[in-house]
Write a structure and sequence with these properties.
This protein is of the alpha+beta class. The protein folds into two domains: 2-82, no CATH class; 104-167, no CATH class. Helices cover 31% and strands 15% of the residues. It has six helices and three strands, in the order αααααβββα. The protein has helices at residues 2-8, 12-15, 32-43, 51-64, 72-82, 148-151, and strands at 111-119, 125-133, 139-145. It has a three-stranded antiparallel β-sheet with strand order 1-2-3, with no helix packed on it. β1 and β2 form a beta hairpin. α3 crosses α4.
Length: 167
């Protein structure tokens, strides 16, 4: 399997990927109810603990009683089945606060650009790209590369079929 995945330039996990989800969701073990009761004994008094801290406290009790510790993934799976997981943390960007202001005080300081494709009925695609000044939203330039460029041998390739000047 590894040689095939290397030849196709894909990860090995993709080769083993299941095409349909498992019936019934997660697998369940017979001892999961015992694990759930131990988890509930911890989360009853500490409901804000996530699965990592709950795992540590459950295993601390088990090790004190001379029993083997549970795997962290098992604790997480049982908590997820029982609906005891905490909501995920919202990721914050700390580099630059986005205030929603795009407009600039004077021209020629910040630009924005975009491009899009227009599929035609005959199968050709017209590609359009443009650039705008963020001060006054003036179009600095645009280029449209249409299907005629592919068929004309003497057409200029860099400038496109349309003009690059502002209409």
């Amino acid at each position: 399997m590894a040689a095939v995945c290397r030849a196709l330039h894909v990860a090995r996990a993709t080769g083993y990927l299941r095409s349909r989800p498992r019936k019934g969701g997660f697998y369940r073990r017979a001892e999961d109810t015992e694990v759930l009761y131990q988890i509930l004994s911890v989360t009853k008094t500490r409901a804000s603990y996530g699965y990592r801290r709950t795992h540590r406290l459950v295993n601390r009790e088990r090790e004190a009683g001379g029993e083997a510790p549970y795997n962290r993934k098992r604790i997480r799976r049982v908590m997820r089945i029982a609906g005891l997981m905490l909501p995920g943390k919202k990721r914050h960007r700390f580099d630059r606060p986005h205030t929603g202001k795009v407009e600039m005080p004077i021209s020629n300081q910040r630009w924005c650009s975009d491009g899009f494709n227009i599929p035609c009925w005959n199968g050709d695609v017209v590609r359009v790209a443009f650039a705008l000044d963020c001060h006054d939203r003036e179009a600095l330039g645009h280029v449209d590369v249409g299907p005629l460029l592919r068929n004309e041998p003497n057409a200029p390739k860099a400038s496109g079929s349309g003009s690059s000047a502002v209409p």
